[in-house]
Amino acid sequence: MTPNSPSTGSGPRSTGSGPNRRTFLASSGLAVLAAIGGAPLLTACGGGGSKNEGATTGKKLKDLLPAYVAPDLVTPDIPAENGSAAGFTKALPAARLKTSVPERLGRGGAFTVMAPIWGNVPPRGNPYWTAMDEAAGVRVTWQNQQGDTYGQKLGAVLASSGVPDAVVVPGWELTGKIPSALAHKFADLGPYLSGDEVKKYPNLAAIPTGAWQRSVFGGKLRGLPMPSATTPNIAPFHRTDLFEKEGLQAPTSAREFHDLCKQLNAPRSKVWACGDMTWAAWHIFGVLPEKPYYWKLVDGRLVNRYETDEYLEALEWSRKLYSAGFVHPDAKAETGNIGDLCAAGKVWMYCHDLSDWYGKAAVQRVDDKTFRMEAFDYFAPDGGAPTLYARPPADIWTFISEKADEKTVRDILALANFTAAPYGSKEQRLRMYGVEGVHHTLEDGVLTKNGKGNNEVFSTYEYLASPAPFIAYADLPDVTRGMVGWQQRQGAHTRKPLFHGMMIIEPTRYTELNAEFEDLEKDVVRGRRKVSDVRRAASDWRSGGGDKLRDWYRKLLDDTGDSAS
Protein backbone atom coordinates (compact mmCIF):
# COMPACT_ATOMS: atom_id res chain seq x y z
CA MET A 1 0.00 0.00 0.00
CA THR A 2 1.25 3.46 -0.80
CA PRO A 3 0.10 6.86 0.44
CA ASN A 4 -1.81 7.25 -2.82
CA SER A 5 -3.66 3.98 -2.30
CA PRO A 6 -5.76 3.53 0.83
CA SER A 7 -6.60 -0.11 0.30
CA THR A 8 -4.47 -2.46 2.35
CA GLY A 9 -4.36 -4.73 -0.67
CA SER A 10 -3.32 -2.18 -3.23
CA GLY A 11 0.41 -1.78 -3.01
CA PRO A 12 3.75 -3.47 -2.45
CA ARG A 13 3.69 -5.96 0.37
CA SER A 14 6.60 -7.04 2.52
CA THR A 15 7.53 -10.66 2.01
CA GLY A 16 9.36 -10.87 5.31
CA SER A 17 10.18 -9.05 8.46
CA GLY A 18 13.49 -7.59 7.34
CA PRO A 19 14.00 -4.44 5.27
CA ASN A 20 13.51 -5.05 1.57
CA ARG A 21 14.28 -2.53 -1.16
CA ARG A 22 11.45 -3.61 -3.43
CA THR A 23 8.78 -3.05 -0.82
CA PHE A 24 10.23 0.07 0.77
CA LEU A 25 11.19 1.96 -2.38
CA ALA A 26 7.78 1.73 -4.00
CA SER A 27 6.03 4.41 -2.04
CA SER A 28 5.05 7.48 -3.99
CA GLY A 29 4.63 11.06 -2.87
CA LEU A 30 5.06 14.73 -3.63
CA ALA A 31 7.64 15.77 -6.22
CA VAL A 32 9.50 19.05 -6.36
CA LEU A 33 11.54 20.65 -9.09
CA ALA A 34 15.26 20.26 -8.62
CA ALA A 35 17.54 23.04 -9.78
CA ILE A 36 18.40 22.77 -13.44
CA GLY A 37 21.80 24.14 -14.25
CA GLY A 38 24.82 23.73 -16.42
CA ALA A 39 25.21 23.31 -20.13
CA PRO A 40 23.05 20.92 -22.16
CA LEU A 41 24.29 17.40 -21.55
CA LEU A 42 23.62 13.89 -22.73
CA THR A 43 26.99 12.35 -22.25
CA ALA A 44 28.93 9.21 -21.48
CA CYS A 45 31.49 10.35 -18.94
CA GLY A 46 34.75 8.50 -18.63
CA GLY A 47 34.92 7.42 -22.25
CA GLY A 48 33.77 4.32 -24.06
CA GLY A 49 30.12 4.66 -23.03
CA SER A 50 26.88 4.66 -24.96
CA LYS A 51 24.82 7.71 -25.81
CA ASN A 52 22.27 6.63 -23.21
CA GLU A 53 24.63 7.10 -20.26
CA GLY A 54 24.77 10.26 -18.15
CA ALA A 55 21.99 12.81 -17.75
CA THR A 56 20.08 15.36 -19.80
CA THR A 57 20.20 18.86 -18.35
CA GLY A 58 20.19 22.55 -19.21
CA LYS A 59 18.27 24.00 -22.14
CA LYS A 60 17.86 20.61 -23.81
CA LEU A 61 16.05 19.35 -20.73
CA LYS A 62 13.87 22.45 -20.44
CA ASP A 63 12.79 22.05 -24.06
CA LEU A 64 11.67 18.49 -23.33
CA LEU A 65 9.65 19.15 -20.18
CA PRO A 66 5.87 19.55 -20.25
CA ALA A 67 4.45 22.91 -19.20
CA TYR A 68 3.22 22.94 -15.62
CA VAL A 69 -0.34 24.08 -14.97
CA ALA A 70 -1.17 24.15 -11.27
CA PRO A 71 -4.31 22.21 -10.39
CA ASP A 72 -7.23 24.15 -8.93
CA LEU A 73 -9.92 21.48 -8.71
CA VAL A 74 -9.83 20.96 -4.93
CA THR A 75 -8.19 22.52 -1.87
CA PRO A 76 -6.56 20.09 0.57
CA ASP A 77 -7.47 20.17 4.26
CA ILE A 78 -3.73 20.07 5.00
CA PRO A 79 -1.59 21.83 2.37
CA ALA A 80 1.68 20.26 1.32
CA GLU A 81 4.68 21.71 3.17
CA ASN A 82 8.40 20.93 3.33
CA GLY A 83 7.97 18.32 0.60
CA SER A 84 5.09 16.51 2.28
CA ALA A 85 2.01 15.13 0.60
CA ALA A 86 -1.20 17.11 0.83
CA GLY A 87 -3.75 15.80 3.30
CA PHE A 88 -7.50 15.22 2.96
CA THR A 89 -9.58 14.20 5.96
CA LYS A 90 -13.02 14.03 4.38
CA ALA A 91 -14.72 11.90 1.74
CA LEU A 92 -17.28 13.78 -0.30
CA PRO A 93 -20.58 12.24 -1.46
CA ALA A 94 -20.51 11.27 -5.11
CA ALA A 95 -22.81 14.16 -6.01
CA ARG A 96 -20.25 16.68 -4.72
CA LEU A 97 -17.25 15.25 -6.52
CA LYS A 98 -15.84 17.42 -9.29
CA THR A 99 -15.10 16.42 -12.86
CA SER A 100 -11.46 16.66 -13.95
CA VAL A 101 -11.97 15.03 -17.38
CA PRO A 102 -15.05 16.74 -18.87
CA GLU A 103 -14.54 15.10 -22.26
CA ARG A 104 -13.69 11.43 -22.64
CA LEU A 105 -10.35 11.54 -24.46
CA GLY A 106 -10.02 7.85 -25.27
CA ARG A 107 -11.20 6.75 -28.69
CA GLY A 108 -11.91 3.11 -27.93
CA GLY A 109 -8.46 1.75 -28.67
CA ALA A 110 -7.30 -1.60 -27.27
CA PHE A 111 -3.81 -2.03 -25.84
CA THR A 112 -1.82 -4.17 -23.42
CA VAL A 113 -0.16 -2.98 -20.21
CA MET A 114 2.45 -4.94 -18.25
CA ALA A 115 2.52 -3.96 -14.57
CA PRO A 116 3.50 -5.39 -11.18
CA ILE A 117 0.87 -6.49 -8.72
CA TRP A 118 1.15 -7.50 -5.09
CA GLY A 119 -1.57 -10.06 -4.49
CA ASN A 120 -3.98 -12.11 -6.59
CA VAL A 121 -4.69 -10.89 -10.11
CA PRO A 122 -8.39 -9.95 -10.48
CA PRO A 123 -10.31 -11.97 -13.09
CA ARG A 124 -10.53 -10.52 -16.58
CA GLY A 125 -13.68 -8.58 -17.28
CA ASN A 126 -14.24 -7.71 -13.63
CA PRO A 127 -16.54 -4.72 -12.93
CA TYR A 128 -13.68 -2.47 -11.80
CA TRP A 129 -11.59 -2.82 -14.93
CA THR A 130 -14.71 -2.56 -17.09
CA ALA A 131 -15.86 0.65 -15.38
CA MET A 132 -12.41 2.25 -15.65
CA ASP A 133 -12.05 1.42 -19.32
CA GLU A 134 -15.54 2.68 -20.17
CA ALA A 135 -14.99 5.92 -18.29
CA ALA A 136 -11.64 6.61 -19.98
CA GLY A 137 -12.73 5.37 -23.41
CA VAL A 138 -10.15 2.59 -23.82
CA ARG A 139 -9.84 -1.20 -23.60
CA VAL A 140 -6.91 -2.45 -21.52
CA THR A 141 -5.58 -5.99 -21.42
CA TRP A 142 -3.49 -6.26 -18.26
CA GLN A 143 -0.38 -8.42 -18.17
CA ASN A 144 0.17 -8.40 -14.42
CA GLN A 145 3.28 -9.94 -12.89
CA GLN A 146 3.95 -10.53 -9.20
CA GLY A 147 5.89 -7.59 -7.78
CA ASP A 148 8.51 -9.62 -5.93
CA THR A 149 9.75 -11.25 -9.14
CA TYR A 150 8.86 -8.42 -11.51
CA GLY A 151 12.46 -7.63 -12.42
CA GLN A 152 13.02 -11.10 -13.85
CA LYS A 153 9.92 -10.87 -16.01
CA LEU A 154 10.74 -7.33 -17.05
CA GLY A 155 14.25 -8.22 -18.22
CA ALA A 156 12.97 -11.15 -20.26
CA VAL A 157 10.20 -9.12 -21.91
CA LEU A 158 12.49 -6.22 -22.81
CA ALA A 159 15.00 -8.65 -24.32
CA SER A 160 12.29 -10.10 -26.56
CA SER A 161 10.51 -8.79 -29.62
CA GLY A 162 7.11 -9.00 -27.93
CA VAL A 163 7.09 -5.83 -25.84
CA PRO A 164 3.55 -4.86 -24.69
CA ASP A 165 2.07 -1.53 -25.75
CA ALA A 166 2.83 -0.07 -22.31
CA VAL A 167 5.21 -1.29 -19.60
CA VAL A 168 5.55 -0.18 -15.98
CA VAL A 169 9.17 0.10 -14.80
CA PRO A 170 10.02 0.74 -11.12
CA GLY A 171 13.23 2.65 -10.48
CA TRP A 172 14.79 -0.18 -8.50
CA GLU A 173 14.76 -2.29 -11.67
CA LEU A 174 17.02 0.14 -13.57
CA THR A 175 19.93 -2.28 -13.61
CA GLY A 176 21.81 -4.29 -16.21
CA LYS A 177 20.58 -3.78 -19.75
CA ILE A 178 17.16 -2.42 -18.78
CA PRO A 179 18.10 1.32 -18.99
CA SER A 180 19.47 0.80 -22.49
CA ALA A 181 16.31 -1.06 -23.51
CA LEU A 182 14.18 1.86 -22.31
CA ALA A 183 15.97 4.20 -24.71
CA HIS A 184 15.70 1.79 -27.64
CA LYS A 185 12.29 0.16 -27.30
CA PHE A 186 10.00 2.91 -26.07
CA ALA A 187 8.47 5.94 -27.73
CA ASP A 188 9.52 9.55 -27.52
CA LEU A 189 6.55 11.28 -25.87
CA GLY A 190 7.93 14.76 -26.46
CA PRO A 191 5.77 15.43 -29.55
CA TYR A 192 2.70 14.67 -27.42
CA LEU A 193 3.64 16.23 -24.08
CA SER A 194 6.56 18.67 -24.24
CA GLY A 195 5.80 22.32 -23.63
CA ASP A 196 2.20 23.35 -24.21
CA GLU A 197 1.32 20.04 -25.91
CA VAL A 198 0.62 18.58 -22.47
CA LYS A 199 -2.27 21.01 -21.98
CA LYS A 200 -4.43 18.64 -24.03
CA TYR A 201 -4.15 16.42 -20.94
CA PRO A 202 -4.80 18.78 -17.98
CA ASN A 203 -4.18 16.21 -15.25
CA LEU A 204 -0.80 15.35 -16.77
CA ALA A 205 -0.01 19.07 -16.95
CA ALA A 206 -0.61 19.24 -13.19
CA ILE A 207 2.13 16.68 -12.45
CA PRO A 208 5.06 18.53 -10.81
CA THR A 209 7.92 19.32 -13.16
CA GLY A 210 10.48 17.46 -11.06
CA ALA A 211 8.72 14.18 -11.80
CA TRP A 212 8.91 14.86 -15.53
CA GLN A 213 12.59 15.76 -15.21
CA ARG A 214 13.21 12.24 -13.91
CA SER A 215 11.32 10.82 -16.89
CA VAL A 216 13.90 11.68 -19.55
CA PHE A 217 15.76 8.60 -20.79
CA GLY A 218 18.29 8.61 -23.61
CA GLY A 219 17.74 12.30 -24.25
CA LYS A 220 13.99 11.93 -24.84
CA LEU A 221 10.89 12.31 -22.69
CA ARG A 222 9.83 8.66 -22.50
CA GLY A 223 8.29 7.99 -19.10
CA LEU A 224 4.88 8.77 -17.58
CA PRO A 225 5.71 9.31 -13.90
CA MET A 226 4.30 8.55 -10.49
CA PRO A 227 5.50 11.56 -8.46
CA SER A 228 7.33 10.77 -5.21
CA ALA A 229 7.56 12.58 -1.90
CA THR A 230 10.87 14.20 -1.06
CA THR A 231 10.49 13.33 2.61
CA PRO A 232 11.58 9.92 3.99
CA ASN A 233 9.20 7.06 3.27
CA ILE A 234 10.68 4.81 5.97
CA ALA A 235 9.27 5.64 9.39
CA PRO A 236 10.21 4.40 12.90
CA PHE A 237 6.97 3.28 14.53
CA HIS A 238 6.04 2.77 18.17
CA ARG A 239 2.88 1.78 20.02
CA THR A 240 1.87 5.19 21.32
CA ASP A 241 -0.98 3.77 23.39
CA LEU A 242 1.31 1.33 25.20
CA PHE A 243 4.01 3.97 25.69
CA GLU A 244 1.50 6.30 27.34
CA LYS A 245 0.15 3.51 29.52
CA GLU A 246 3.67 2.89 30.86
CA GLY A 247 4.52 6.59 31.10
CA LEU A 248 7.20 6.34 28.43
CA GLN A 249 8.41 8.88 25.87
CA ALA A 250 9.65 8.17 22.34
CA PRO A 251 13.47 8.18 22.09
CA THR A 252 15.26 11.34 20.96
CA SER A 253 18.85 10.06 20.52
CA ALA A 254 20.65 6.88 19.55
CA ARG A 255 21.64 6.25 23.18
CA GLU A 256 18.08 6.82 24.39
CA PHE A 257 16.83 4.30 21.85
CA HIS A 258 19.31 1.69 23.08
CA ASP A 259 18.52 2.37 26.74
CA LEU A 260 14.79 2.23 26.06
CA CYS A 261 15.22 -1.12 24.34
CA LYS A 262 17.02 -2.41 27.42
CA GLN A 263 14.12 -1.28 29.59
CA LEU A 264 11.41 -2.74 27.36
CA ASN A 265 12.95 -6.03 26.28
CA ALA A 266 11.33 -9.09 27.89
CA PRO A 267 12.08 -12.23 25.84
CA ARG A 268 10.87 -14.52 28.62
CA SER A 269 7.45 -12.92 28.21
CA LYS A 270 7.75 -13.21 24.41
CA VAL A 271 8.04 -9.43 24.06
CA TRP A 272 10.97 -7.76 22.28
CA ALA A 273 11.99 -4.14 22.11
CA CYS A 274 12.20 -3.73 18.34
CA GLY A 275 12.43 -5.15 14.86
CA ASP A 276 15.30 -4.65 12.45
CA MET A 277 16.07 -0.91 12.61
CA THR A 278 18.72 -0.72 9.88
CA TRP A 279 16.63 1.36 7.51
CA ALA A 280 15.86 3.83 10.28
CA ALA A 281 19.57 3.89 11.18
CA TRP A 282 20.40 5.25 7.72
CA HIS A 283 18.34 8.34 8.59
CA ILE A 284 19.47 8.63 12.21
CA PHE A 285 23.14 8.62 11.21
CA GLY A 286 22.70 10.76 8.08
CA VAL A 287 23.80 8.08 5.62
CA LEU A 288 23.78 9.05 1.95
CA PRO A 289 20.98 7.58 -0.23
CA GLU A 290 21.53 4.77 -2.70
CA LYS A 291 22.62 5.25 -6.29
CA PRO A 292 22.69 7.49 -8.17
CA TYR A 293 22.54 9.97 -5.26
CA TYR A 294 25.16 8.22 -3.14
CA TRP A 295 27.88 10.87 -3.39
CA LYS A 296 28.90 13.93 -1.40
CA LEU A 297 31.69 16.45 -1.74
CA VAL A 298 34.35 16.41 0.98
CA ASP A 299 37.10 18.99 0.47
CA GLY A 300 36.31 19.02 -3.23
CA ARG A 301 36.49 15.22 -3.61
CA LEU A 302 33.54 12.94 -4.31
CA VAL A 303 33.02 10.44 -1.50
CA ASN A 304 30.65 7.50 -1.87
CA ARG A 305 28.08 6.23 0.64
CA TYR A 306 30.11 3.06 1.25
CA GLU A 307 33.20 5.06 2.16
CA THR A 308 31.62 7.20 4.86
CA ASP A 309 31.91 6.91 8.64
CA GLU A 310 28.15 7.44 8.90
CA TYR A 311 27.52 4.26 6.94
CA LEU A 312 29.72 2.19 9.23
CA GLU A 313 28.30 3.81 12.37
CA ALA A 314 24.74 3.02 11.31
CA LEU A 315 25.66 -0.62 10.75
CA GLU A 316 27.45 -0.84 14.10
CA TRP A 317 24.49 0.69 15.98
CA SER A 318 22.08 -1.72 14.30
CA ARG A 319 24.40 -4.64 15.02
CA LYS A 320 24.46 -3.79 18.73
CA LEU A 321 20.67 -3.96 18.89
CA TYR A 322 20.87 -7.52 17.59
CA SER A 323 23.79 -8.56 19.77
CA ALA A 324 22.01 -7.26 22.88
CA GLY A 325 19.01 -9.45 22.07
CA PHE A 326 16.63 -6.51 21.58
CA VAL A 327 15.51 -7.52 18.07
CA HIS A 328 12.70 -10.03 17.61
CA PRO A 329 14.01 -13.42 16.36
CA ASP A 330 11.75 -13.27 13.30
CA ALA A 331 13.69 -10.23 12.11
CA LYS A 332 16.97 -12.11 12.26
CA ALA A 333 15.42 -15.04 10.41
CA GLU A 334 13.69 -12.67 7.95
CA THR A 335 10.36 -14.40 8.46
CA GLY A 336 6.94 -13.32 9.64
CA ASN A 337 5.73 -9.73 9.81
CA ILE A 338 7.19 -7.51 12.52
CA GLY A 339 4.48 -4.90 12.02
CA ASP A 340 1.83 -7.45 12.92
CA LEU A 341 3.84 -8.41 16.01
CA CYS A 342 3.97 -4.76 17.04
CA ALA A 343 0.21 -4.47 16.56
CA ALA A 344 -0.17 -7.55 18.78
CA GLY A 345 1.99 -6.04 21.54
CA LYS A 346 4.91 -8.43 21.00
CA VAL A 347 7.27 -5.75 19.64
CA TRP A 348 7.46 -2.16 20.89
CA MET A 349 9.14 -0.45 17.91
CA TYR A 350 9.90 -1.22 14.27
CA CYS A 351 10.47 0.60 10.98
CA HIS A 352 8.56 0.25 7.74
CA ASP A 353 7.00 2.23 4.93
CA LEU A 354 5.03 5.21 6.26
CA SER A 355 1.82 3.78 4.78
CA ASP A 356 1.94 0.99 7.37
CA TRP A 357 0.62 3.59 9.84
CA TYR A 358 -2.79 3.50 8.20
CA GLY A 359 -2.68 -0.20 7.39
CA LYS A 360 -2.20 -1.25 11.00
CA ALA A 361 -4.64 1.29 12.44
CA ALA A 362 -7.39 0.36 9.98
CA VAL A 363 -7.18 -3.31 10.92
CA GLN A 364 -6.68 -2.98 14.68
CA ARG A 365 -9.35 -0.34 15.35
CA VAL A 366 -12.07 -2.64 14.11
CA ASP A 367 -11.86 -4.41 17.48
CA ASP A 368 -9.85 -1.92 19.56
CA LYS A 369 -10.84 1.74 19.17
CA THR A 370 -8.02 2.82 21.51
CA PHE A 371 -5.25 1.37 19.33
CA ARG A 372 -2.65 4.01 18.44
CA MET A 373 0.55 3.48 16.52
CA GLU A 374 2.58 6.48 15.38
CA ALA A 375 5.95 7.32 13.87
CA PHE A 376 8.39 9.20 16.07
CA ASP A 377 10.64 11.87 14.63
CA TYR A 378 14.14 11.16 13.43
CA PHE A 379 17.06 12.49 15.44
CA ALA A 380 20.82 12.76 15.05
CA PRO A 381 22.86 10.22 17.03
CA ASP A 382 23.55 12.81 19.74
CA GLY A 383 19.93 13.95 19.86
CA GLY A 384 20.26 17.01 17.63
CA ALA A 385 18.56 17.68 14.32
CA PRO A 386 18.90 14.80 11.85
CA THR A 387 20.48 14.96 8.42
CA LEU A 388 17.91 13.59 5.99
CA TYR A 389 18.24 13.37 2.22
CA ALA A 390 15.49 14.09 -0.28
CA ARG A 391 14.03 11.23 -2.26
CA PRO A 392 13.84 11.29 -6.08
CA PRO A 393 10.92 13.27 -7.54
CA ALA A 394 9.69 10.10 -9.30
CA ASP A 395 10.75 6.47 -9.17
CA ILE A 396 8.08 4.53 -11.10
CA TRP A 397 7.17 5.10 -14.75
CA THR A 398 5.06 3.74 -17.58
CA PHE A 399 6.65 3.58 -21.02
CA ILE A 400 4.87 3.26 -24.37
CA SER A 401 6.25 0.94 -27.05
CA GLU A 402 8.01 2.62 -29.95
CA LYS A 403 5.93 0.39 -32.23
CA ALA A 404 2.67 1.91 -31.01
CA ASP A 405 0.90 4.04 -33.63
CA GLU A 406 -0.30 7.55 -32.83
CA LYS A 407 -3.86 6.42 -32.05
CA THR A 408 -2.59 3.93 -29.49
CA VAL A 409 -0.27 6.49 -27.94
CA ARG A 410 -3.15 8.97 -27.68
CA ASP A 411 -5.40 6.39 -26.05
CA ILE A 412 -2.75 5.46 -23.49
CA LEU A 413 -2.22 9.15 -22.71
CA ALA A 414 -5.98 9.56 -22.37
CA LEU A 415 -6.02 6.81 -19.76
CA ALA A 416 -2.99 8.31 -18.02
CA ASN A 417 -4.76 11.67 -17.88
CA PHE A 418 -7.73 9.90 -16.28
CA THR A 419 -5.63 8.06 -13.69
CA ALA A 420 -3.74 11.25 -12.78
CA ALA A 421 -6.96 12.92 -11.62
CA PRO A 422 -6.63 14.59 -8.19
CA TYR A 423 -8.35 13.67 -4.96
CA GLY A 424 -11.89 15.04 -4.82
CA SER A 425 -12.64 14.19 -8.46
CA LYS A 426 -15.04 11.61 -9.88
CA GLU A 427 -12.17 10.03 -11.77
CA GLN A 428 -10.06 9.61 -8.66
CA ARG A 429 -12.94 8.09 -6.69
CA LEU A 430 -13.48 5.47 -9.37
CA ARG A 431 -9.78 4.73 -9.74
CA MET A 432 -9.13 4.32 -6.00
CA TYR A 433 -12.40 2.81 -4.78
CA GLY A 434 -14.19 1.32 -7.77
CA VAL A 435 -17.93 1.55 -8.36
CA GLU A 436 -20.10 2.76 -5.49
CA GLY A 437 -22.48 0.04 -4.35
CA VAL A 438 -20.37 -2.61 -6.11
CA HIS A 439 -16.92 -2.08 -4.61
CA HIS A 440 -17.49 0.44 -1.83
CA THR A 441 -20.04 2.30 0.25
CA LEU A 442 -20.04 5.82 1.68
CA GLU A 443 -21.78 6.16 5.03
CA ASP A 444 -21.39 9.03 7.50
CA GLY A 445 -18.46 10.38 5.49
CA VAL A 446 -16.55 7.09 5.61
CA LEU A 447 -15.59 5.22 2.44
CA THR A 448 -15.50 1.47 2.98
CA LYS A 449 -14.46 -1.16 0.46
CA ASN A 450 -16.41 -4.40 0.58
CA GLY A 451 -15.03 -7.85 -0.18
CA LYS A 452 -15.40 -7.37 -3.93
CA GLY A 453 -13.59 -4.04 -3.70
CA ASN A 454 -10.68 -5.57 -1.80
CA ASN A 455 -10.42 -8.37 -4.36
CA GLU A 456 -10.64 -6.25 -7.50
CA VAL A 457 -9.53 -2.67 -6.81
CA PHE A 458 -5.78 -3.28 -6.68
CA SER A 459 -3.00 -0.93 -7.71
CA THR A 460 -2.96 -1.14 -11.48
CA TYR A 461 -4.29 1.96 -13.20
CA GLU A 462 -2.37 4.51 -11.14
CA TYR A 463 0.87 3.16 -12.59
CA LEU A 464 -0.08 4.80 -15.88
CA ALA A 465 0.41 8.18 -14.15
CA SER A 466 -0.49 9.70 -10.79
CA PRO A 467 -1.17 13.20 -9.46
CA ALA A 468 1.00 15.04 -6.99
CA PRO A 469 0.71 12.80 -3.94
CA PHE A 470 -1.83 13.10 -1.20
CA ILE A 471 -2.80 11.20 1.93
CA ALA A 472 -6.54 10.78 2.31
CA TYR A 473 -7.95 8.48 4.95
CA ALA A 474 -11.38 9.87 5.76
CA ASP A 475 -12.14 6.86 7.96
CA LEU A 476 -9.15 7.69 10.18
CA PRO A 477 -8.59 11.46 9.91
CA ASP A 478 -6.21 11.43 12.89
CA VAL A 479 -3.95 9.07 10.95
CA THR A 480 -4.05 11.37 7.93
CA ARG A 481 -3.07 14.34 10.09
CA GLY A 482 -0.39 12.32 11.82
CA MET A 483 1.21 11.06 8.61
CA VAL A 484 1.25 14.46 6.90
CA GLY A 485 2.50 16.15 10.06
CA TRP A 486 5.31 13.63 10.37
CA GLN A 487 6.33 14.23 6.76
CA GLN A 488 6.35 17.99 7.29
CA ARG A 489 8.50 17.78 10.42
CA GLN A 490 11.02 15.48 8.73
CA GLY A 491 10.95 17.67 5.64
CA ALA A 492 12.25 20.58 7.70
CA HIS A 493 15.52 18.64 8.05
CA THR A 494 15.70 17.28 4.51
CA ARG A 495 18.42 18.37 2.11
CA LYS A 496 19.04 17.56 -1.55
CA PRO A 497 21.86 15.11 -2.30
CA LEU A 498 24.20 15.70 -5.19
CA PHE A 499 22.54 15.24 -8.58
CA HIS A 500 19.09 15.39 -7.00
CA GLY A 501 16.24 15.18 -9.49
CA MET A 502 18.42 14.06 -12.40
CA MET A 503 17.76 10.86 -14.25
CA ILE A 504 21.26 9.39 -14.30
CA ILE A 505 22.10 6.20 -16.16
CA GLU A 506 25.42 4.73 -15.06
CA PRO A 507 27.59 2.85 -17.59
CA THR A 508 26.61 -0.82 -17.80
CA ARG A 509 30.17 -1.86 -16.88
CA TYR A 510 29.43 -0.69 -13.34
CA THR A 511 26.05 -2.42 -13.04
CA GLU A 512 27.12 -5.09 -10.55
CA LEU A 513 29.57 -2.91 -8.66
CA ASN A 514 27.28 -2.44 -5.64
CA ALA A 515 25.63 -5.86 -5.74
CA GLU A 516 27.20 -7.36 -2.61
CA PHE A 517 26.43 -4.56 -0.18
CA GLU A 518 22.76 -5.32 0.60
CA ASP A 519 23.49 -8.91 1.65
CA LEU A 520 26.63 -7.78 3.46
CA GLU A 521 24.65 -5.20 5.43
CA LYS A 522 22.18 -7.86 6.56
CA ASP A 523 24.98 -10.21 7.59
CA VAL A 524 26.80 -7.53 9.57
CA VAL A 525 23.83 -6.36 11.63
CA ARG A 526 22.84 -9.95 12.35
CA GLY A 527 26.33 -10.80 13.58
CA ARG A 528 27.26 -13.13 10.74
CA ARG A 529 29.94 -10.77 9.42
CA LYS A 530 32.02 -7.98 10.95
CA VAL A 531 32.07 -4.24 10.27
CA SER A 532 35.68 -4.72 9.17
CA ASP A 533 34.32 -6.84 6.31
CA VAL A 534 32.46 -3.77 5.10
CA ARG A 535 35.69 -1.77 5.11
CA ARG A 536 37.32 -4.47 2.98
CA ALA A 537 34.32 -4.52 0.65
CA ALA A 538 34.61 -0.74 0.22
CA SER A 539 38.29 -1.16 -0.63
CA ASP A 540 37.43 -3.85 -3.17
CA TRP A 541 34.70 -1.58 -4.52
CA ARG A 542 37.23 1.19 -5.14
CA SER A 543 39.77 -1.05 -6.89
CA GLY A 544 37.06 -2.96 -8.77
CA GLY A 545 35.69 0.10 -10.53
CA GLY A 546 34.56 2.49 -7.82
CA ASP A 547 37.38 4.94 -8.43
CA LYS A 548 36.65 4.95 -12.16
CA LEU A 549 32.96 5.46 -11.41
CA ARG A 550 33.98 8.37 -9.17
CA ASP A 551 35.77 9.94 -12.14
CA TRP A 552 32.67 9.41 -14.28
CA TYR A 553 30.50 11.22 -11.72
CA ARG A 554 33.12 13.95 -11.30
CA LYS A 555 32.84 14.82 -14.98
CA LEU A 556 29.06 14.69 -14.73
CA LEU A 557 29.19 17.09 -11.78
CA ASP A 558 31.59 19.43 -13.59
CA ASP A 559 29.32 19.51 -16.63
CA THR A 560 26.00 19.92 -14.84
CA GLY A 561 26.77 21.81 -11.65
CA ASP A 562 25.66 20.97 -8.10
CA SER A 563 21.87 20.49 -8.04
CA ALA A 564 22.02 20.27 -4.23
CA SER A 565 23.17 23.85 -3.82
UniProtKB/TrEMBL annotation:
A Pfam family this chain is assigned to: SBP_bac_1
Ranges where the record places region Disordered: 1-22
SUPFAM superfamilies registered for this protein in UniProt: Periplasmic binding protein-like II
Gene3D superfamilies in UniProt: Periplasmic binding protein-like II (3.40.190.10)
Annotated localization: Cell envelope
This protein's UniProt keywords: Signal, Transport
Superkingdom of the source species: Bacteria
Broad class of where this protein is predominantly found: other
Family: Belongs to the bacterial solute-binding protein 1 family.
Protein name: Extracellular solute-binding protein
Species assigned in the record: Streptomyces huasconensis
